[in-house]
Amino acid sequence: MTDRLERLLAAAVPEVCPAAVALIAAHGTVTAAAAVGELVRYADAEPTTGSDAVPGAPGTLAADRPPARRDSVFDLASVSKLCTTAVVLSLTEEGLLDLDEPVRSWIPGTDPRITLRRLLTHTAGLTPTRRIDLELPQAGPDERMAAMLTTPVTGPVGGPYLYSDVGMVMAGRIAELAASAPLDVLVRARITDVLGLSCTGYRPVGGGGPAERVAATEFKPERPGPGCVRGEVHDETAHALGGVAGHAGLFAPADDLLAFGEALRLGGGAMLSPSSVAEMTRDQGAEGAAFRHGLGVRIGDPGIVGPLSGAYGHSGFTGTSLVVDPARGLTVVLLTNAVHPVRGRPGMRELRCAVAAEALRHVA
């Protein structure tokens, strides 16, 4: 089984992504694991020329190209939203938050129709994104966060579905206000510590994390330091907010993300109560999407579940995904750095669905 998964990843590397790590677990046992490619393949985003040119290469090949391993650490991008949701739900269990209370209780001046439930289902009418780094280029993270929280409603409140990073930033900030602690502290105390996810966290570079194990992402010449981004969050808004935000910022290896998915599959474990997980993974009735939507999770998203109809999870812009299929007892992790050294490379959707299809072969 592992050989099949490895061949599947190898067929996509390096054209779709320079590095890929995948795990498939059936009923709690890892039945296939593969790591292919290089964590840092390119030094920049300038195609090579001359006698050393590599046909089709989107950048100059790096001199040092460490191989991907099972314990390599990847920028999860929007898969981080699942952890933000878990933090919010843990606070509702303690009575510190109410999913249906207007969020203006925490953020004065916000539209009274916006609730946490609408933020977590992307039905709050908020814009998909906001480049606060460009709006306030000289500001610090706190000033930028304050500006993010004043983002006006521009669409219908209550639906249809409109994917919004801004809404998830707001949800993360509300969790901080309710618990009187930063989001990274909440994620550590309520998720990674209780599940034993020792290599999952924000800001692996400068935060004591395993920098040498981190996969590189996009070449961003506006960032300080040579070469492609490595160990700093790829997402511009999360970076502008200091590297910790409700919509993006987490880094993790495949086994840690698998353990998080397994906790959800089994009803929450030490992280959440079964009733919270049931509410998280229940169809919340959001209309207008190509999938059903729970709280922070997509149900039956054709872009990640492939033939695993009814499975839930999330994808990340960097080329990551987590799929949980309780009915079949499957948890599927795919971590890649598909934006290295440039974004917009084709084939990521097909790779995600192919890994999900391979997982279906593991059902007893």
Give a verbal description of the structure.
- The protein is an alpha+beta fold and 364 residues long.
- The chain has helices spanning 2-10, 80-93, 116-120, 132-135, 141-148, 165-179, 183-195, 236-240, 254-265, 274-280, 348-360; strands at 19-26, 29-37, 73-75, 201-202, 250-253, 292-293, 298-299, 312-316, 320-325, 330-336.
- The strands form two sheets. It has a seven-stranded antiparallel sheet with strand order 2-1-10-9-8-7-6, with helices on both faces. It has a three-stranded antiparallel sheet with strand order 3-5-4.
- Strand 6 (292-293) and strand 7 (298-299) form a beta hairpin.
- Helix 1 packs antiparallel against helix 11 and helix 2 (80-93) crosses helix 7 (183-195).
- The protein starts with a helix and ends with a helix.
- The model has no long low-confidence stretch (mean pLDDT 94).
